[in-house]
Amino acid sequence: MPADRVSVVGVGCTRFGERFDAGYSDLVAEAVGEALADAGLDRRRVDAAWLGTAFPDAGVWKGRSGMDLAEATGIFGIPITRVSNYCATGAEAVRGAAHALLAGACDVALAVGVEKLRDRPPQESIVGMMLHDGHPVRQKGFTAAGTFAVYARRHFHERGMTRRDLAQVSVKNHRLAVDNPLAHFRKPLSLEEVMAAPLVADPIGLLDACPTTDGAAAVVLVRAEDAGRYSAPVDVAGIGLSVSSGWDLPFFDPGHAFLGFQATRDAAARAYSQAGIVDPRQDLDLAEVHDCFSIVELITYEDLGLCAEGEAASLLWSGATDRGGDVVVNGSGGLLSCGHPVGATAVRMVHEVTTQLRGRAGRRQVEGARRGLAHNIGGPGAIASVLVLEARG
Prior knowledge:
With 393 residues, this protein is of the alpha/beta class. The chain folds into 2 domains: 6-123 and 216-226, Thiolase/Chalcone synthase (Peroxisomal Thiolase, Chain A, domain 1, 3-Layer(aba) Sandwich), CATH 3.40.47.10; 140-209 and 236-391, Thiolase/Chalcone synthase (Peroxisomal Thiolase, Chain A, domain 1). 35% of the residues lie in helices and 18% in strands. The protein has helices at 24-39, 67-73, 89-102, 126-133, 144-159, 163-177, 191-196, 262-275, 280-283, 294-303, 312-318, 334-338, 342-357, and strands at residues 6-13, 48-52, 80-83, 109-116, 199-201, 204-205, 214-223, 234-243, 286-288, 328-329, 371-378, 383-391. The strands form 2 sheets. It has a 10-stranded mixed β-sheet, with helices on both faces. The longest helix is centred in the first third of the chain and has 16 residues, at 24-39. It is globular, with a radius of gyration of 19 Å.
């Protein structure tokens, strides 16, 4: 095994949804307990941990410190680092754990992502937080849907994309989620239903948007050279993370075309270089990408190099990203169906890709899957992470 790789040896994930039946600590305990059991490890074997929660200072008031992981799991006496990087928060937890392992600072690392977004009043929602705590001029009226609607409109104008193309992303992902017992929504939708849904931010409709969700996921990692003693290790072949701009950019950048995300392209280039990926459409079997809104999945096809610029809609309609296609994109149902508990999403993706590469995904299994990708983008498209995972043998 390469000396610069780590391996996932245990994964755990709660059911995503409106989890009024479980508190923040309950979700953490469930995901971590499952990941440790999957790895065949006692909690005392964990040397260091990373806790990803993006928005702790509203609603449940949990996730501001590593103490909230220690208390929920009984893992004490080790370094626990709390991280936040908007929608790449969970990937940041995995990245921190991987780098500590490669630095020799620990031998067994735990990365956890968790968020409770349903147990809070509207005034403490993410939209409310942006309204009250954001920039007094630049973020007044700012919403995630409004941000990505600008990109959709630009694609309509420049590339001939339509609302029907956006709707088809939602149709695909909701259909694939039927076979995912952990998804928030598991009901298939017709193209007509998606098109008829109320608009949230023109041209993005209600069913082009992911739901507000609770959930947690966890992964156990070790150095690749030590992974042979575990039953089903999956190697992390590439890690890329990029912050391409701040909140005021790209909206005040006259050179920004609103047709793609530089952060995704930069993060993908780093991860691909490490993993030896030359042709993503040929070299990848599946990808979990950040479809917080349907337009983002289409943009990401191009940013990840799955197709040329301007060909995203054609790629979608060809079936190449559907089950049985060249690269199955969001075979879990994606954020549109699984939901988006922000801190947990990236770790949930690693859980899904690992499950696929182990051949344990049941009816949603991608036949012969050997290499998969997890992608997240956050803020106004400013932050992106790309993780590439490979099966062994």
